[in-house]
Amino acid sequence: MIAKKTKIDEPVADSVRKNGKNPKLITRILQEAIGYLRGFVEYMRETQYCEKDPDGNPLLDHDMKIDVTPEPLPGKCRGERPSSEMQEAEVLRLQQILNKMKKQEQKIYAIEKAVMKLEKELEDVKRKWFHRKEQKELEGKIETKKVQLEKAKATLDLLPAQHGYKNALEVTKAMKTAKEELQEVRKKQKTWDQEEAESA
């Protein structure tokens, strides 16, 4: 108990008073205390069975050297660096789904614009005389485009379902969650890397 007080408690309190909570200085104190303790155990082992004088002091027939070199603290078992492989793959998978959906939305928008343009042309043709053939052609084109539009919208609605989601909103929510999980793992990786650099 005296050794703990003089080798750990007092030096730590003194160090904190003078330098604040500095982990490196406290580590140094612990290393010295472990070295002292190792030396003390060595001394006890060496003197355990030897003769003693009337005061109980050991009588040694040889010089004894006690090693009290500061002991390095055991390395922290850190395990492997956190992997973000799974989270990155999930973000990539969801991004591909969202890209397909965006492409389909652009296709729908282009068809809608084409329909609007054709309908405007049809209105202009209807105002003219003797353009019945042109009117019929435009009506046929509009009908074809509207069929394409319905198919494009149906494909867009099916895209989330093909990947196990009810709708586009579910895909967006899943992407938000996946990105948050990836950020969390990246924070852990950053902490791990900093600790690794400090212990090197």
Could you characterize what this model shows?
The protein has 200 residues and is mainly α. It folds into 2 domains: 1-74; 85-199. The protein has helices spanning 2-19, 23-47, 85-126, 132-162, 168-199. Helix 3 (85-126) packs antiparallel against helix 5 (168-199). The protein is rod-shaped, with a radius of gyration of 40 Å. The mean pLDDT is 83. Residues 84-195 form a coiled coil. It comes from Ligilactobacillus ruminis DPC 6832. One of its GO terms (molecular function) is kinase activity.
Count every helix, treating DSSP H or I runs of 4 or more residues as helices.
Answer: 5
Mean pLDDT: 83
Measure the end-to-end span: 34 Å
The total tally of domains equals: 2
Instruction: Indicate the proportion of strand residues.
Output: under 5%
Order of helices and strands: HHHHH
Question: Can you count the beta strands?
Answer: 0
Summarize the amount of helix as a percent range.
over 70%
Structural class: mainly alpha
Q: Report the uncertain regions.
A: none
Could you give the topology of this structure?
Blueprint: H1 2-19, H2 23-47, H3 85-126, H4 132-162, H5 168-199
Coiled coil: 84-195
GO molecular function: kinase activity
Keywords: Coiled coil, Kinase, Transferase
Primary descriptors:
kinase; single chain; kinase activity; coiled coil; mainly alpha; rod-shaped
Structure at a glance:
Helices cover 74% and strands 0% of the residues. With 200 residues, it is mostly helical.
